[in-house]
Amino acid sequence: MSCTFCKIARGVASAYVVYESERIIAFLDKYPVTRGHTLVCPRDHYVTIMETPDNLLYDLIRVVKAVARAQVAALGARGVRVVQNNGSAAGQVIFHLHFHVIPFYEGGRVGRTELSHEEGVEVSAILSRELGKIMPRS
Ligand SMILES: [Zn+2]
Predict the structure, then answer these.
(1) Crossing angle of the two packed helices 54-75 and 117-134, in degrees rounded to 10
(2) Burial of 61 per CB tally in 10 Å (0-12, 13-18, 19+)
(3) Would the pTM count as exceeding 0.85?
(4) Which residues keep their CB under 5 angstroms from ion ligand 1?
(5) Which of 1, 2, 104, 130 could bond to 74 as cystine, CB 3.0-4.6 Å?
(6) How far is the CA of 112 from the centre of ligand 1 (A)?
(7) Structural domains counted in the chain
(8) Full domain range(s) for residue 45
(9) 32-64: per-residue pLDDT in tens?
(10) Whole-number average pLDDT of the chain
(11) Are 46 and 52 in contact (CB under 8 A)?
(12) CATH number for position 116
């Protein structure tokens, strides 16, 4: 098992998790573009959107929507960007399907720096609490 996101999905590698269900896990990006930058991915290993089953994509986009709502409601985001890269030519770096859900703020910091432990704990707690209200756990 060499895939980083498979390791996170199986609890072998750590991450600041904001939501998880039987098939999906969402956690903070290790190099966030902005505060609260979250990745939503399936626990099972699919590389691109093209090979991912439709019913799983439906569940994934529901979580993407909930994360975006939580970023607005609990982090005060003014806008949210959703990005999903397929293939290295398109900028995919981790070859396990994932959606970036990136909140944007009025005059906020933009630029990838490594997530600090303090920010990881704080932001994941805020988003996790908000997502607990939006999405029922399964
Ligand atoms: Zn994987």
Answers:
(1) 110
(2) middle
(3) yes
(4) 3, 5-6, 45, 96
(5) 130
(6) 23
(7) 1
(8) 4-134
(9) 999 999 999 999 999 999 999 999 999 999 999
(10) 95
(11) yes
(12) 3.30.428.10
